[in-house]
Amino acid sequence: MTIEEGIIYGKKYISSIDAKMLISKATGYDTLEIINYLHQELSPKEEELYKNLISARKNNKPIQYITNNVNFYGIDLYVDENVLIPRFETEELVENTIEKLKKIKNPKVLDLCCGSGAIGIAIKTKIDSNVVMSDISKNAIEVAKKNCEKYNLDISVIESDLFQNIDDKFDCIISNPPYIKENEEIEDIVKNNEPAIALYAGKNGLDFYERILKDIRNYLNDKFLIALEIGATEKDDIIEIINKYFDNVIIESKKDLSNRDRMIFITNNN
Ligand SMILES: C[S@@+](CC[C@H](N)C(=O)[O-])C[C@H]1O[C@@H](n2cnc3c(N)ncnc32)[C@H](O)[C@@H]1O
Asked: Are residues 16 and 128 in the same domain?
């Protein structure tokens, strides 16, 4: 089977974009270069691997877990089943946070609940900053470290149940914590493939905001920025939690490009 025949074969089962990505994965050619090798024969091993990848995709495994790659904020990151696949909305959280951080010289930033490290790595690569990332999952920590090594980034990655092993103070704490309600209907492809520990946050989806906001002040410098991704229906409840633990702060909520409330920023006047 040539690469061209392979793509035609793949298109019977999955989208042509996915077929191209999977044949790239099986042959080791870059997706952008594959067009130059259409008449090349696959080795028996490559063909077998390609067919196995197609069958995984056909069974609804996310393409990012099959190719072990996702592009986040212009950066190619390694991902596997141990981490959430970073989402477009989170790029918007990063974008807005970077704009705010530009006003601080060499900010010290904690990416709490870092998963693959997408947020912390995006910040570190875009602005001069001192970044620490943490997550409770040993396997996610491995992935985050692998991504830091890929780009030779000097970021400490700490295994920690929220703030348990954090003993520093930061100018900014940014987090995309789990926020799905216990019984919330979510897409099968998410439910069946992404780690439950990255998704669920108790009956109301608010457990992590409550835990984070209760303790976060101890880990912030006098002047601070907190940046949180939130579930689209959670804004009012989270503002209530913020008001329970903070006086005298500025709370700014922002909508994503789909016009849903997906980010909250908290700053103080100091
Ligand atoms: C929604 S995912 C976000 C991952 C990544 N920040 C992103 O935006 O793609 C939430 C992350 O929180 C981590 N997590 C769950 N419970 C935690 C806890 N108690 N302490 C720290 N991290 C936790 C999960 O392992 C998962 O990586």
From this structure: no
Tokens of residue 263, six digits: 């980010």
> Within this chain, do residues 43 and 92 fall inside the same structural domain, yes or no?
no
**210 shares a domain with 138:** yes
**120 Cβ below 6 A of ligand 1:** no
Ligand 1 pocket, 135 CB below 6 A?
yes
**Beta-strand runs (E) in the chain:** 70-72, 75-77, 108-112, 130-135, 156-159, 170-175, 220-229, 249-255, 261-268
Instruction: Determine the structural domain holding residue 128 and report its residue range.
Output: 82-268
User: What is the four-CA torsion angle of 86, 63, 43, 1, rounded to 10 degrees?
Assistant: -150
The Cα-based distances of 219 to 109, 174, 216, 222, 228 in angstroms read: 11, 12, 5, 10, 15
Pocket lining: 122 vs ligand 1, CB cutoff 6 Å: no
Pocket test for ligand 1, best of 84, 112, 191 (most atoms within 8 A of CB): 84
Indicate if 24 and 89 belong to the same structural domain.
Answer: no
**Which pLDDT tens digit goes with each residue over 58-106?**
999 999 999 999 999 999 999 999 999 999 999 999 999 999 999 999 9
Q: How far apart are CA 175 and CA 228, in angstroms?
A: 5
The pTM of the full predicted model, rounded to 2 decimals, is 0.94
